[in-house]
User: Fold this.
Amino acid sequence: MPEINKETLPVHVGIIMDGNGRWAQKINLPRTAGHKQGLEAARNILIAATEIGIKYVTLYTFSTENWKRTKEEVGFLMNLLTSNLHNEVTRYLKEGIRLLHLGDMEGLPPEVQNELYDAMERTKDKKKTTVVLAINYGGKDEIVRAVKKLVKNNIKPEQIQEKTIENYFDVPELPPVDLLIRTGGEKRISNFLLWHAAYAELFFSDTLWPDFTKEEFLKIIEEYQTRTRRFGGVK
Assistant:
């Protein structure tokens, strides 16, 4: 078991859960089988994060670009969300997890919206860990939508600071990303939390998401704790 220092944990961990489709194809299964297995991996990682005391975990669940995938795969993913959210919330309540949504809610099917609103309402008083599901989310899209809200509210240029813009983001309270993990071997951030991850520590794993384990997650946390974060300054 890695040596985790509870005093220097990342406050906010963002995870790009990449590799579900490739995992399934490797064993001659449809891509949808990888998404189902990926759900189990997400459960295990969230439990691990809650156990060690990480306050925020954002999961890149469905991007604004993922609509380009086949109609069958998109439909499966939306159905997977609606069919599993209710059961997941039962687990969240037991673990003390609050759920929030990040992304363009209006662009989602009504049944997904309803499940998300219900899940957020049911878990709103939980305080141990906040899980943020980025669904129909893109970093550029979030910034553009925030700017539109600024304009609509007649915010004058001289009034605009970084915090002003953040107040119009989907989750204004969401802190900066301390650690960003991407599985699946690709080394890019794919329009994920562009603003929030400005000074994130990046970690890329070759493990396909369905095979990503609690043990590997904890090893990454341990490595994060060895890094020196200077935020552009000098130590």
Summary: Residues 82 and 115 are 6 Å apart (CA to CA). The longest strand covers residues 129-137. The chain has a mean pLDDT of 95.
